[in-house]
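Hi everyone,

Forwarding the result from last night's run.
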Amino acid sequence: MISIEYILIGVTVLILLSIFASKLSDKFGVPSLLIFLIIGMLAGSDGPGGIHFDDPYLAQFLGIVALSFILFSGGVDTRWQDVRPVLRTGLFLSTLGVLTTALITGWLATVVLNFSFYEGLLLGAIISSTDAAAVFSVLRARRVSLRGRLKPLLELESGSKDPMAVMLTLSFIQLVLNPDKSAYSLIPLILWQIAAGGIMGYLLGKGAVAAINNLKLEYEGLYPVFTLALVPFSYGVTAALGGNGFLAVYIVGLVMGNSSFIHKKSLGRFHDGFAWLMQISMFLTLGLLVFPKQLVPVIVPGLLISAFLMFIARPISTFLSSLYSGFSFREKIMVSWVGLRGAAPIILATFPLLAGVPKADMIFNVIFFIVISSALLQGTTIPAFARRLSVDAPLREKPPYTIEYESTEKAKFELIEFRVHEHSSITGKQVVDMDFPEGALIILINRGEEFFVPGGSTVVNAGDMLMMMVSKENIDRVRSLVET
């Protein structure tokens, strides 16, 4: 029996190693998920760490909890005004795109791995989800962003794709274990999961905003505790009703992120950091769960399926889902290439293990290998691909200062930061000549290392960061004047 102090030391050392090793991601453009997975594999029984971990149930439990917090944090960070123009395309990608990827990849799995029809579809469903967070971490490391509607499209697709992949995975597990069961019999169940997940997420999100604004807790530190409890509660109560818990927590985050409540900024920063802790813990655990020696027999079929997924299945699903979307051919190519596989497929690969699916071990190893190969090939080439296709944009830096302003539902103004671009309509103009609507005021300008309060004759330059107080009804108008 290992004493608790050694367990605590081991866990914290692995987390600290992951944090320090994440600098490799910044230096070489390697996705951080790959770094965390490798550390977990090295710490496992086949590596120098020698830690024996073979508990799929614990790994799945931690994965579900971690993924719930990651989806919640992603929802909080998603601005509705950004994703609204790409809502139709994003939803098609996260539904029709996932189904198309699962069907095409599942067909290949039946050929390459000699799987049955439903076993192939199960593997295709598991690998159908993508990880936009990994994509954006690679782009940030190379100080690159994506222009136009690409970034909000990928954010929306990633946040809404996992629930669909979960539903398909659970459905195909049922069909593998009960081959006589009709696939059509699962349609009402899937529809109920979507409806219950969406309704519960919306109601719980609205309820959480009202509760935070009216609780008036004596201690500010209790607000993060409230939201920490909210996430697993939202997942659990939705799943207990037969709904999709992942969809619910994402919508809870989306509703809260686009509402006004006290301590919003501090809670957002807290959950961003907590999501990173969950991500590190999840990848370390999944790295421990795999036995690298067992990956050797699946290298050839894994490479074939991975290449097929990158170059055929993902592009087909992307172009099919984005018909009449207004995206250019180059933008669609970029969307198809950034279909990076991440944590969700590995977590979903534990579901067949616990369900007793006959070929679950092979499915898990193949999925794990595909995730690694996707991170190595796609993850390291995304910035160069974006530049080659001319869909890249300068990374918008966060301001090196923090000013807190707590807005509530009753507040009429928001404190917002805007970056002035070279081709902005206000670049080179004096403040007095700017056509801002009533209720919009520049209160601080950050220019390089300098901070100053502007006057009417102050000329705004490209690259300036404006701290503005803006009435809520004029936020979109001011953003269009400053950022376009």
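The first strand starts at residue 144 and ends at 146.

Cheers,
N.
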